[in-house]
DNA sequence: GATACGTGGCC
DNA sequence: TGGCCAAGTAT
């Protein structure tokens, strides 16, 4: 018997037949479940890596990263002993880079505090950086078949529709955890959790859900009330700011360019970039670039031609990078607003982890270098 | 509890 | 093009 909040905000009783729901879902999963790389192992390390990569990231994006990662770092020990730069280079392009930094730190913590063995208690697992309750439940159910519930985006949507919740999922998280826990099959928790996620990922889609193919069609309260299109409820999103950033590709007399490593925490932490900063009101781009380089690197430059403009959307703001070639004049480059600065050749850029927006700058640099050879 | 935190695909 | 969304966590 599950308790579901009704439209008036009161809690009313709902009694979907849990044993039949389990049987229907597991039967569907046996027939239609996805064959994914991390389902072919019970190694908690490999499963852990997949769970972290899959946070806010779709399966098709993760698969190539997953294989490359396990080849480079096949176990906890190899990951713990790698440098953060190696770790970030393998993560380059996946986004949410704190995930990679946390994996690295957690591997070292497992070596020092758990004798190198991945912990099997919920508390100990959630105590590792980057692992919340959903990821902990996912790992423990998949690797050790423990009856731990999960509540990711797929499960939230599936349960919101199954019980026709009239409120946005983020407002009823506690209830959703109860529902996930009540439904979880105690005999086959590993399969059940995977099945729940597959249902959300392949049938109970955000848009154009494939209801006729759903094993829960006859139980789904949203379907019975013709509310599938409206559930889960959403809250309007806030407008996001757009920043104009002046960026410098600074050349020295040895035909090297200057790059800097961002602070370890925060946006794109630990990644390298071409230096620059936000254009202030009534400031020209060249003036911005010259000022930012003086303030953050402590050197004098001459700002030259524009190389490229790069539009890029992050999750909570947008930027336009206006990138100019620059010529080094004088001063000793210092890491005044970053971790480190370094002169490198264009060919060496490939050895450093860069965010996507900077990859576009590098591509433009290489294209221009190729073009120059023909003149 | 709201916000910061990346990127790619879809329409 | 722009907005939405995807196997969430940390603060």
UniProtKB/TrEMBL annotation:
<dbReference type="InterPro" id="IPR003265">
    <property type="entry name" value="HhH-GPD_domain"/>
</dbReference>
<keyword id="KW-0004">4Fe-4S</keyword>
<dbReference type="InterPro" id="IPR003561">
    <property type="entry name" value="Mutator_MutT"/>
</dbReference>
<keyword id="KW-0326">Glycosidase</keyword>
<dbReference type="InterPro" id="IPR005760">
    <property type="entry name" value="A/G_AdeGlyc_MutY"/>
</dbReference>
<dbReference type="Pfam" id="PF00730">
    <property type="entry name" value="HhH-GPD"/>
</dbReference>
<dbReference type="InterPro" id="IPR011257">
    <property type="entry name" value="DNA_glycosylase"/>
</dbReference>
<dbReference type="GO" id="GO:0051539">
    <property type="term" value="F:4 iron, 4 sulfur cluster binding"/>
</dbReference>
<keyword id="KW-0378">Hydrolase</keyword>
<comment type="similarity">
    <text>Belongs to the Nth/MutY family.</text>
</comment>
<dbReference type="GO" id="GO:0046872">
    <property type="term" value="F:metal ion binding"/>
</dbReference>
<dbReference type="InterPro" id="IPR029119">
    <property type="entry name" value="MutY_C"/>
</dbReference>
<keyword id="KW-0227">DNA damage</keyword>
<feature type="binding site">
    <location>
        <position position="262"/>
    </location>
    <ligand>
        <name>8-oxo-dGTP</name>
    </ligand>
</feature>
<dbReference type="GO" id="GO:0035485">
    <property type="term" value="F:adenine/guanine mispair binding"/>
</dbReference>
<feature type="binding site">
    <location>
        <begin position="273"/>
        <end position="276"/>
    </location>
    <ligand>
        <name>8-oxo-dGTP</name>
    </ligand>
</feature>
<dbReference type="GO" id="GO:0006284">
    <property type="term" value="P:base-excision repair"/>
</dbReference>
<keyword id="KW-0408">Iron</keyword>
<feature type="binding site">
    <location>
        <position position="358"/>
    </location>
    <ligand>
        <name>8-oxo-dGTP</name>
    </ligand>
</feature>
<keyword id="KW-0234">DNA repair</keyword>
<dbReference type="InterPro" id="IPR023170">
    <property type="entry name" value="HhH_base_excis_C"/>
</dbReference>
<feature type="domain" description="Nudix hydrolase">
    <location>
        <begin position="240"/>
        <end position="368"/>
    </location>
</feature>
<comment type="function">
    <text>Adenine glycosylase active on G-A mispairs. MutY also corrects error-prone DNA synthesis past GO lesions which are due to the oxidatively damaged form of guanine: 7,8-dihydro-8-oxoguanine (8-oxo-dGTP).</text>
</comment>
<feature type="binding site">
    <location>
        <position position="276"/>
    </location>
    <ligand>
        <name>Mg(2+)</name>
    </ligand>
</feature>
<protein>
    <recommendedName>
        <fullName>Adenine DNA glycosylase</fullName>
        <ecNumber>3.2.2.31</ecNumber>
    </recommendedName>
</protein>
<dbReference type="InterPro" id="IPR020476">
    <property type="entry name" value="Nudix_hydrolase"/>
</dbReference>
<dbReference type="GO" id="GO:0032357">
    <property type="term" value="F:oxidized purine DNA binding"/>
</dbReference>
<dbReference type="InterPro" id="IPR015797">
    <property type="entry name" value="NUDIX_hydrolase-like_dom_sf"/>
</dbReference>
<dbReference type="GO" id="GO:0034039">
    <property type="term" value="F:8-oxo-7,8-dihydroguanine DNA N-glycosylase activity"/>
</dbReference>
<dbReference type="InterPro" id="IPR020084">
    <property type="entry name" value="NUDIX_hydrolase_CS"/>
</dbReference>
<keyword id="KW-0479">Metal-binding</keyword>
<dbReference type="InterPro" id="IPR000086">
    <property type="entry name" value="NUDIX_hydrolase_dom"/>
</dbReference>
<dbReference type="Pfam" id="PF14815">
    <property type="entry name" value="NUDIX_4"/>
</dbReference>
<feature type="binding site">
    <location>
        <position position="296"/>
    </location>
    <ligand>
        <name>Mg(2+)</name>
    </ligand>
</feature>
<dbReference type="InterPro" id="IPR004036">
    <property type="entry name" value="Endonuclease-III-like_CS2"/>
</dbReference>
<dbReference type="InterPro" id="IPR044298">
    <property type="entry name" value="MIG/MutY"/>
</dbReference>
<dbReference type="GO" id="GO:0008413">
    <property type="term" value="F:8-oxo-7,8-dihydroguanosine triphosphate pyrophosphatase activity"/>
</dbReference>
<keyword id="KW-0411">Iron-sulfur</keyword>
<dbReference type="GO" id="GO:0000701">
    <property type="term" value="F:purine-specific mismatch base pair DNA N-glycosylase activity"/>
</dbReference>
<dbReference type="GO" id="GO:0006298">
    <property type="term" value="P:mismatch repair"/>
</dbReference>
<keyword id="KW-0460">Magnesium</keyword>
